[in-house]
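User: Can you help me understand a structure? I only have the sequence.
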Amino acid sequence: MTRNFSEWLLTFTDSIANYKYYIDFETVYKNAEKLKVELNILNSLIGSKNIESDFENIIAKYPEVLKCIPILLAVRQSEILVLDKDGNNFIYDFKKMNYTLEQYKTFMRETGLFDLIQNHLVNNLYDYVLGVESGLNSNARKNRGGHLMEDLIENFLIKSGFKKDETYFKEMYLQKIEEKWKLDMSFISNQNQTTKRFDFVVKTDNCIYGIETNFYASSGSKLNETARSYKMLAEESKNVYGFKFVWFTDGYGWYSAKNNLKETFDTMEDIYNINDIKNGIIKEILK
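Assistant: Let's start by predicting it. Here is the structure, written out as tokens:
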């Protein structure tokens, strides 16, 4: 089937953000719930008239409360490095106290946490942490975005009847493909001098398919290199009997590198976008 590159490019999409992309509330609730008891203990400090002495009493009785202090500052790690005005370095450990209680009170005072809690700037620290976790989770969108195309492809593989670790496999290296199906992948691995990992490998009765997936929402120099390297990979794959390389890609970022993408499109048989997937290309080609 002859396809027109310009028409194909017009079917590219600008976003693959799913419902979980913006904020993963399940993770937000899970993270906050881990600290719920300790946060509720700290709630007793809200509006305190003698917050430093009350804090001291709480820590003496419930030292585990310390572990929820970092998240109040939107910090995930349990150690916080501080340089004071005199040039002294402090590395506060919030799993196990490594300074005097007075020093931890200094931390609470200087960071503004005592003021936040004492002056009713928050009414409930658990609710406050839910907000903090939501903010931190939104910052993870870039990481989630990197897996969205893989998740989309996997979903369609499953819909097409493939089963994980039976007829499709995630993140499989050339060496594993060679061992599992006795294929000679040296044409791709440069005589075993390079290591290549495919996002997915699909096994049918007739062929082994190595699949790469990516989505580029914005332009960049990486796109040109990706197009060139996948063009070469497609050519090398032709030398491996019983194996085919398939590339699923999409995103408006390709408009800035469309010339390089067209070169790959013109020489590579199995390159598809999301529109092709929606129209059933997976069942059509993976057989």
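Now, to help you interpret it: The mean pLDDT is 93. The beta strands are 79-83, 89-93, 168-173, 197-203, 208-215, 243-250, 271-272. Let me know which part you'd like to focus on.
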